[in-house]
DNA sequence: CTACAATTTGATCGACCGATCAATTTTTTA
DNA sequence: TAAAAAATTGATCGGTCGATCAAATTGTAG
């Protein structure tokens, strides 16, 4: 296993096949054989490019998080006020979940099922170096708005952030709701502004 | 397998062992052998009292949901205004997650990992007959408050309910937060009242 | 062209799992 | 108390999985 172009392309191909398989059968029923079949390669090749199953899952999770973060961040930076950034964050996040449904499902499958070497699942892990996560982006927007007077200073950014992320993730788990995503996004923005504006 | 007292007690014992095992190793690494060992019985006895592994999980999920629902409902009915009921709902829900942490973890493990005969996980299922779920209780409280004038009528109960449940479940996944549960509950109640009061 | 390195295959191994079942023990029934 | 029913054991079976590896193929450097 090296870092050649071929190896890098192959690894991404396997990661993509892993995402497809996760969405179709879930982590619970996923096997390396199924991923290999999806990627139209032999099972041994996966072991050649990834140390073991957990290593493949770690790379797949990293891929999914990076894509989502990149999409949302690119939308947020287009705005130049905290209010507009907040709106962009909420809408981009909800939009991504709808347009990249397969990725969202794969992400959920890994986060709630995969466990590290010590048996700790991702959803129970302490966010070690939350240097650059989605939550940090959101908290920074809230702080910026407080500092420049767009938002009131009478709320704790961490709690409002939980509030917003909770509402977004709640929607992530119920995409089949009777309420269209667009409307949900608009209403959520309205509510948040009523809270902090 | 019958419905005798012995069988009923044995089934509950197995369900409790299942909850313990879920919390310790997760659904992913759970086996009927481990559940049997936890319950200090033979493996065959589980198959005697439950049709198969999925049947055990269904009973365990039903047990967990019923316990949680019962606790929250008992707290809510003590209050006699929509405002107080809403406060009781939020605080009871958050309190239950902290005092019954093991049950919360087991619930998450089943909902996000177990799949029915058709391969559909619980978290992706349409809530068939949501006759009596937590969400219904919450929506009913919101409707009651709107009808008797405690709350404004300018919001959609379904969306605010998602908002509230999202904030509660977000906390469920991050119990190790720097913010104490009590404070989180108080702030959440304040925010919701600011939204709808 | 040649030799070496990287890549890929597919068979195979040991381990574990869910489910089954004959045999045994305990409880209930009459 | 004797017979029947219920409950329980533990060994066992077929199946699947993750990982390994010798062998084959492809790519690359000299």
TrEMBL record, chains A, B:
PROSITE patterns for this protein: HTH_TETR_1, HTH_TETR_2
TM regions (residue ranges): none
UniProt keyword terms in alphabetical order: DNA-binding
Record-annotated HTH tetR-type domain positions: 8-68
Pfam families in the cross-refs: TetR_C_4 (PF08359), TetR_N (PF00440)
InterPro entries: DNA-bd_HTH_TetR-type_CS, Homeodomain-like_sf, HTH-type_Tx_Regulator, HTH_TetR, Tet_transcr_reg_TetR-rel_C_sf, Tscrpt_reg_YsiA_C
GO molecular function: DNA binding
Chain residues forming the annotated DNA-binding region: 31-50
Name this protein carries in UniProt: Transcriptional regulator
Gene name for this UniProt entry: rutR
